[in-house]
Amino acid sequence: MNPPATVYPVKPAFAAETRITRDEYQRLYAQSLQQPDVFWGKVAERLDWMKAPTRIKDTSFELKDFRIRWFDDGELNASVNCLDRHLETRGDKTALIFEPDSPDAPAQRISYRELHERVCKLANALRALGVGKGDRVTIYLPMIPEAAIAMLACARIGAVHMVVFGGFAANSIADRVSDSGSKLIITADEGLRAGRKVALKANVDAALKLPGTNSVETVLVVRHTRAAVDMQMPRDRWYDAVVDDQPAQCEPERMNAEDPLFILYTSGSTGKPKGVLHTTGGYLVYVSYTHEAVFDLREDDVYWCTADVGWVTGHSYIVYGPLANGATALVFEGVPTWPDASRFWQVIDKHRVTIFYTAPTAIRALMREGEGPVAATSRKSLRLLGTVGEPINPEAWRWYYEVVGNSRCPIVDTWWQTENGGILISALPGATDLKPGSATLPFFGVQPAIVDTHGKRIEAEGEGNLVILDSWPGQMRTVYGDHQRFIDTYFRTYPGTYFTGDGCRRDADGYYWITGRVDDVINVSGHRIGTAEVESALVSHDKVAEAAVVGFPHDIKGQGIYAYVTLIAGEQPSEALRAELVKHVRAEIGPIAAPDHLQWAPGLPKTRSGKIMRRILRKIAENAPDQLGDTSTLADPSVVDSLVQERRVP
Ligand code: ATP
Ligand code: MG
């Protein structure tokens, strides 16, 4: 069922100059498992500690003896590691490049020195407003430099930040504010996305009228678009009015390695978001090391991760990882398709971006528009590409590789979760041969295993549920306010292991292929079929831009396959095309995977972070539109209505 994948060997240019060669990967990986204290103790030296840790790893996934503690007698401050320690050698280096929503608005470059100053001023202002160590602060901002500044200012004074994605509305803000018990909110008058205004301050006002939000004492408002907004004194304060006159130095709080750094709610693909809590030392060691190793970071790189700071990717790989490493990171306010589908590639040329990290949803959306918008740009500064968020269909991988990267740049397909803090499975560009659609091999210290539904370990080649056998430093420590939910969700299903919730196949070379979420696996006549595989077969047809596949109850087979298909721009649906696509899947995978029903979908329901929500599509396929569950994290609820109306009766 799985023909051998094409292999893309390590590029000679990377093999020659890389930080981590193939041999080093193998040697260090073995050491990281055999002597975790030695390995991680050494890696931890990359940070500046106020008190260096003497205890390194103290973890157990056994329920009777459960604990996750890393570097737990160490003390440090995350903002000092991201700012102060660079001032001497990199004070004038650009820390952040800000590219606004509109290509006509001027870009900004913020040096490490300036960033340090701006963070210190806000940190002083927060202290003056009564925020201290352990207090929670909600950040609800557009993708502007103040988002990173706010996170680092919280870290400086030991406050726990909780970022809410700027695309969420009042209800979602209120839920998260209430769950986290935030004392202060940092927001802006308005956000800008694709030329449209987003009423951030008004959303906060509406949220604070909802029950459970009484903990909020102050709302700081950044003047971004300078729109007139309703200011309710004394609760609401203009950011510049309280920040500008603060001293440019701020004494950082000494934090224990296991003190909380932030809370972040998961994207909600499978249900109600969970308040994932990350701590300071292990998280920062892990994100800075993975960022350097996976992206093979060099001093002069211009690094661009297109995620929003509202997601964990934005936390780990726009703010904490890159800044801890003294890198130059680009912050982009806009969207990939506005003013046109060339926008990403133009930004790459404009700022000479060398490393570009994005999501399959963006790649598929841009692929839908054809090669023209890409070909109109040079992209010759690029040397490495990355992807995260969903399985990347091999077809989209090849387009990314050949068209965007001109077959010059390796692609690191990075598998990880909000819960993980940082990347767990990924190629290292100088060490790992690539296979399109595979996240390839585990990072140092990460021990993936595949188990069947009874928890029996599948060795060598095989498919099943992906678990991780032992802790890594970036692992979440609890679900905020609900430690039992943490244990029950991740450590009870397959005792003694961390259960990821994802399905996975390991091939003969030991490469990992994420097959989709376990809840989404379809069981057709006793055959377990991963959604990712059928979707990739559909997307490999040249008229298909995107596909989502779910199971529905089937009298004979147990479950049948229901496919939703979005065509590329300009293609028209027809019965002939429908038959052709079913035949195509049959030919690509086998008759067992042929969709029983195929519905045209002008759009698919996605989370705000761009992930397909198959749980909702399953309910539509089952004809249970009244049981859609929590839809608050959907990007565009109207997509669902039209799919319900057009449903094909199985
Ligand atoms: P929730 O947990 O609330 O349902 P979510 O799982 O979408 O939301 P995230 O933590 O943002 O929240 O996403 C992690 C999930 O994304 C992984 O479990 C996996 O299903 C998917 N994923 C991320 N990166 C990859 C990748 N490179 N390849 C395949 N799948 C990926
Ligand atoms: Mg998840």
From TrEMBL:
Gene of this entry:
acsA
Keyword presence, S-adenosyl-L-methionine:
no
User: What does the record say about PTM?
Assistant: Acetylated. Deacetylation by the SIR2-homolog deacetylase activates the enzyme.
Q: What is the lineage of its organism?
A: Bacteria, Pseudomonadati, Pseudomonadota, Gammaproteobacteria, Lysobacterales
| Domain AMP-dependent synthetase/ligase residue range list | 84-468
Q: Which cofactor does it need?
A: Mg(2+)
User: Which amino acids does the record list as binding Mg(2+)?
Assistant: 539, 541, 544
What this protein is called in its record is: Acetyl-coenzyme A synthetase
> What Gene Ontology molecular-function terms does this entry list?
acetate-CoA ligase activity
